[in-house]
Write a structure and sequence with these properties.
With 901 residues, this protein is of the alpha/beta class. The protein contains 29 helices and 28 strands. Helix content is 32%, strand content 16%. α28 links the parallel β27 and β28 (878-879).
């Protein structure tokens, strides 16, 4: 027995409780809300904190998350845990017809029986296991309190990296459970809490055994009326300490032989290795912990669905007769046993019947062997569509044998586009044997893919043209792409252009500048160019043919961290009504149809504008073969070929059509695959859609983007002429605003501060802080000590010309982002007129260094003021006292710098 005591290590617990669902109405809703689940996570958090294994800061509670929110929280916990990683889930569980996958339904879950996606808004437990396995944690505990939790046992059995994963499931396979009294935790979690909340150590194996005993003693029953039997799965010799609230000195269980005892934890855990009086552990082979043979897979024949039908018939009969519709069950193409299961069960799934979950249990015969599982890696923006296709293919005739068994299974996952390209190009060997903690594609991307579906055909040569000579992965792309979608500028309806010539064809920069000219407060958002091909392709158009340096072009994009995906971008804009009304988004056109089903019920309608220099998405099917995986290579080739053929055929096209994609070829317009249901704001046939990008364009744009978002260079000009005396002191004075903005700069950034005063023969500026890397505290002390108002006027023209010339020279040899900031009261703005102003404007245009003019006067950025003209000519921004100067200046500096303040 290997007992692992995680005290003293970096542990993480993610407690997920989905008590509320967006859609609970039939036929597509979840079965209902689960108020008891609120108590589950609140009580479990408190009990774990008292257990001294997890510190308060190591426990995260995720209440009714969407699927995207859950995925982010899971990846965060996975990346941070080093000792013990615990995932607890309470909510609705659902299973597909074969019963061979478990779906954990999040807040935005729905049910589509017989459709292209069985359970949208839910996460497959297979995917959860795959993500968990990327964690550096030494042990992983998963606790599931949901209907059909026991169906996870078979998935654990067939999971390759299961040694360190210990699984506790609330109920046996193919059983639904009642959530109990809404004023208390659910029955399973109530018993779990009692076992954990005691003054003795709680080890996983004993906890699982005692949980079963307590549930049996309490005579709990499933919805089917059978004994409610929690299940667990571990390797026979594995165990882990979950709670250590012992009042006596403790020996604990057998310790992990991989290393010495861990030290006492900072939150009060006691040193291991001293006596506890804990009862002797039962032998691993005893009773329910015996695991010498593989448990039978979930029932798949007639017995399970008929039993379920019997228990549900009285409650659902009348409802079923009212709502049953033709077409829910696919007609059998040929005789086979699975076709004899009652068609009415698919209707039950559609209705979402059940107090605590959904079941669709029209099963294969129990003689079916587990199908070969294909791992499908795709771009994050494509993941929902590829998941939908995989869901449809799994239950298709093409993937079903004459005996009713599945030919193959599919695990769909996504990773950052740049990470996927880098891993396949330079780190394929590291996928099998990571050389160190810094290089681990299994953790950063996911399992070795059998199939890769990137969003652009150019991603393939990005890998192959510079692939390592010792690469162990080879790519075999199809010649024809699967579909096409242009990248559009989705503009709020009230801000959009009206003429077709303005809507289709102009370059992206011109579209953005035109939008800002029409609406001063308008802003443009783009997803992360390193995470999705959407963002990178939009960046190709943003940078154009090189007329603008990347740093200046980036100032067209709204400040702040980008949304990781276009889907998330569209879903988060409505979180702020004001932003939603003024924000345009660079997204794939297909998302204007299929990417607007997120939780916000109110969103600004948008019109698609089609830039003439932004390449479109064109996903392609790529078979990935691995050296050393020859044993089942032929079987994997057959499985991959089956999915590829189906995906490129009529049924696959239907999935892409429903999502909003276009034809891959045609005369210019590339017609929509589905012309019967065109999304609002989309043109059916825009002329001259842009061809997909090439390798060089994508690599070049990525390099420029990274350069433009690398360490920055900022020159601050601080007006210290005599008139500034009244605007000098305090956080809103000139020096105070400058010091606040330093939070937008990081250790790698370099900056300087000039004070501006002096006319005629006197120098127009003095160096307060020379260019270099300055610690923020040191810089603030220099400013406080040496910045003083002078009894002199300022010459803004001479100072700005000197600053532009200096920065142009510094940036000549690199593409680092640069910025000039001029903080002034505009008392000497009269020197910026006529030819003097024109000379500054000309230099600003040629230097291509953005200038942020910060006017401490209330009207400094009016349309006819020189500050406005200078910032516009340079591609910068003008802010005045009518705005929050501190926040606005900080945002502008942060766009250039790498700080986190």
């Amino acid at each position: 027995m290997t007992g692992f005591d995680p005290r003293g290590l970096v542990n993480r617990a993610l407690l997920v409780g989905v008590s509320e669902y967006d859609l609970t109405e039939p036929p597509h809703g979840a079965p209902g809300d689960l108020p008891a689940v609120k108590h589950n996570v609140n009580r479990l958090r408190d009990v774990l904190q008292r257990g001294r294994v997890f510190g308060e800061h190591e426990i995260t509670v995720s209440r009714s998350p969407s699927l995207d929110d859950f995925s982010r929280a899971l990846r965060t916990a996975v990346g941070e845990a080093e000792g013990l990683l615990l995932l607890y889930f309470a909510g609705h569980g659902a299973i597909p017809s074969a019963g061979d996958e478990l779906f954990l339904q999040m807040r935005n879950a729905s049910v589509v029986a017989g459709g292209h996606a069985v359970f949208p808004g839910a996460e497959m437990f297979t995917t959860v296991l795959t993500v968990l396995a990327t964690s550096p944690a030494r042990r992983i505990v998963v606790i599931l309190d949901c209907c059909f939790a026991g169906n996870a046992a078979w998935l654990w059995e067939t999971f390759r990296d299961k040694r360190r994963v210990l699984l506790l499931m609330s109920v046996q396979a193919n059983h639904r459970t009642d959530a109990g009294d809404p004023r208390t935790p659910t029955p399973f979690t109530e018993e779990l809490l009692r076992l954990l909340d005691t003054d003795e150590e709680a080890w996983f194996q004993d906890l699982a055994d005692r949980q079963r005993e307590r549930m049996a003693a309490a005579r709990h029953r499933t919805v089917r009326g059978e004994p409610w039997e929690p299940q667990s799965r571990t390797e026979p010799t594995e165990d882990v300490l979950l709670s250590a609230r012992a009042t006596r000195p403790a020996t604990g269980g057998p310790k992990d032989t991989a290393g010495p005892p861990v030290p006492v934890s900072s939150d009060g855990g006691e040193q291991p290795g001293t006596p506890t009086g804990r009862a002797p552990r039962k032998p691993a082979g005893d009773g329910l912990r015996k695991r010498a043979t593989r448990p039978a897979p979930p029932p798949r024949g007639r017995a399970a669905p008929l039993a379920l039908l019997h228990t549900c018939a009285k409650a659902a009969g009348a409802r079923l007769r009212r709502t049953r519709r033709p077409g829910l069950v696919r007609p059998a193409q040929r005789p086979r046993r699975r076709a004899t299961a009652p068609a009415v069960l698919l209707v039950l799934a559609t209705l979402g019947l059940g107090s605590y979950g959904v079941v669709v249990l029209v099963g294969d015969d129990s003689s079916c062997a587990p199908p070969l599982e294909l791992r499908v890696l795709t771009d994050p923006d494509l993941e929902p569509t590829v998941r939908a296709a995989a869901g449809a293919y799994l239950t298709s005739d093409e993937n079903t044998t004459g005996e009713g068994c599945r030919r193959s299974g599919l695990t769909v996952y996504s990773a950052g586009a740049a990470d996927a390209v880098t891993a396949l190009r330079k780190r394929s060997a590291s996928w099998q044997e990571p050389p160190d903690e810094r290089t681990n594609p299994q953790r950063d991307v996911g399992p070795q893919p059998d199939v890769w579906i990137p969003a652009s055909r150019a991603d393939v040569p990005r890998v192959t043209d510079e692939q390592d000579t010792d690469a162990v992965a080879t790519l075999h792309p199809e010649d024809a792409p699967l579909a096409y979608s242009p990248i559009v500028l989705a503009v709020p309806e009230d801000l959009a252009v009206e003429s077709r010539s303005e809507r289709v064809g102009p370059p992206l920069i011109r579209m953005i500048d035109s939008l800002r000219e029409r609406h001063e407060s308008a802003e443009v958002h783009r997803p992360d160019p390193e995470f999705t091909d959407t963002g990178l392709l939009a960046t190709i158009g943003l940078y154009g043919t090189g007329a603008l340096v990347p740093g200046r072009a980036e100032h067209r994009i709204a400040p702040g961290p980008p949304s990781p995906t276009a889907t998330e971008l569209l879903c988060t804009l409505p979180d702020d009504d004001a932003v939603d009304r003024r924000a345009a988004a660079l997204v794939p056109e297909f998302l204007m149809k299929s990417g607007v089903g997120c939780d916000s019920t109110r969103r600004e309608p948008r019109i698609a504008q089609y830039p003439g220099n932004v390449p479109g998405l064109e996903p392609v099917f790529v078979r990935v073969r691995w050296q050393g995986a020859e044993r089942d290579a032929s079987a994997r080739d057959r499985a991959a070929d089956g999915f590829r053929t189906w995906l490129a055929g009529e049924r696959g096209r239907e999935v892409f059509a429903r999502a909003g994609f276009r034809e891959t070829s045609g005369s210019g317009s590339r017609s929509l695959l589905d012309t019967s249901e065109i999304a609002p704001g989309v043109l059916p046939a825009p002329d001259g859609l842009v061809e997909p990008a090439g390798r060089d364009a994508m690599e070049g744009a990525l390099a420029k983007y990274r350069g433009a978002h690398g360490p920055g260079r900022v020159l601050f000009l601080l007006d210290n002429s005599g008139s500034m005396a009244r605007l000098w002191e305090g956080p809103s004075g000139g020096p105070g605003l400058l010091k606040q903005s330093l939070g937008g700069l990081g250790d790698g950034d370099e900056y300087a501060v000039w004070t501006v005063s002096g006319t005629g023969d006197r120098p127009p500026y003095a160096t307060l802080l020379p260019f270099g890397h300055h610690a923020r505290r040191d810089a603030e002390q220099v400013i406080d000590r040496n910045a003083r108002v002078r009894n002199a006027e300022a010459d803004p023209r001479a100072a700005l010309l000197a600053a532009l010339e200096d920065m142009e020279g510094r940036g000549a040899g690199d593409e680092r982002p640069q910025l000039i900031v001029y903080i002034t009261d505009d008392e000497d703005a009269g020197r910026l007129t006529g030819g003097d102003l024109n000379s500054v404007l000309a230099q600003a245009r040629s230097a291509q260094v953005p200038v942020t003019m910060v006017s401490l006067a209330g009207d400094g950025c009016d349309e006819d003021k020189p500050d406005t003209a200078i910032s516009a000519a340079s591609g910068g921004r003008c802010v005045d006292a009518d705005e929050d100067l501190g926040a606005a200046l900080h945002d502008e500096v942060a766009r250039t710098g790498t700080g986190e303040d």
